[in-house]
Specification:
With about 250 residues, this protein is α/β, with parallel strands linked by helices. The chain has 9 helices and 14 strands. The protein has helices at about 40-45, 55-60, 65-70, 85-95, 105, 165-170, 190-195, 200-210, 230-235, and strands at about 1-5, 20-25, 30, 50, 80, 115-120, 125, 130-135, 145-150, 155, 175-185, 215-220, 245, 250-254. α8 packs across α9 (about 230-235). It starts with a strand and ends with a strand.
Length: about 250
């Protein structure tokens, strides 16, 4: 399984993850923060499945651009998956004929732009050669993480979340789990902000890591760019040998 965190900065792209999009095997996307700004329309067209963790802007903002870029007057179209609440938010606040044309309604009377598919929590589905299972996590709006499996290997995208439990219970029962992409949004001195917004600091990251099976690669992501250097120092000070500060536009293989 090959995973790339899509870059969202025109300079120092590896270290500035302003928004969230992950590409798995070049065909399946987790979130669409910058998916619609990545590469050429032809490269975007290889992505047929987009899984949304939740409705916050940094995870969906480029979805309209992506849908427009890959559209052709043909019956095939990408499928966008999410919890029912997430898909409803996208319809109400993005494809609403105010922020963007209602591609959902237009898809019912012309060659479709996209198809929405609601997910059932902890019910796996097949997409692009992968098995994807959504698991609820702890955030301000309905949010899920994803367990993604290809063959004997699995990874977890934990999404945006404060301290959570069920996802880690599932992790302990996931054969071949190789890595977890886990957020560390704020430095320790801003713990009150992290708690209020249901994100993690390095200290809280460490507490979540203790709930995971031993030997799993921990990919630290979603570092707020303004505080990145401080967060990195605090993560490194944890002394956890399994922690890696993930970089955008680098291909990781599991």
């Amino acid at each position: 399984m090959k995973i790339v965190i899509l870059g969202s900065s025109d300079r120092d792209v590896a270290h500035r993850q302003y928004v969230s999009s992950y590409l798995v095997n070049g065909k399946v996307a987790i979130d669409a923060g910058c998916l619609g700004l990545h590469g050429t329309p032809e490269e975007q067209d290889a992505v047929r499945h987009v899984f949304l963790t939740h409705s916050h802007a940094d995870h969906v903002v480029s979805l309209p651009f992506f849908v427009e870029n890959v559209w052709t007057p043909a019956p095939d179209c990408p499928v966008v998956y999410g919890m029912p609440e997430t898909l409803q938010a996208v319809q109400d606040h993005v494809f609403n004929n105010v922020i963007w044309p209602d591609f959902v309604a237009l898809s019912e009377r012309m060659p479709p732009f996209l198809r929405l598919q609601a997910l059932e929590l902890e019910s796996p589905l097949e997409a692009g050669g992968l098995t994807v299972t959504p698991v609820r996590v702890n955030h301000l709006v309905p949010t899920c993480g994803y367990v993604v499996r290809e063959g004997e290997s699995a990874v977890i995208f934990a999404g945006d979340s404060g301290p959570t439990e069920r996802l880690w219970e599932v992790a302990h029962h996931t054969p071949g789990l190789r890595a977890v992409f886990l957020e560390a949004s704020f430095p320790n001195r801003l713990k009150s902000v992290a708690q209020a917004s249901l994100h993690l600091t390095p200290e809280m990251f460490n507490q979540e890591a203790a709930k995971l099976p031993a030997g799993i690669r921990l990919m630290a992501v979603h570092l707020k760019v303004r505080f990145r250097e401080e967060i990195v120092r605090e993560l490194q000070a944890l002394g956890l040998p399994s922690v890696e500060i993930a970089e955008c536009e680098r291909e990781y293989e599991f």
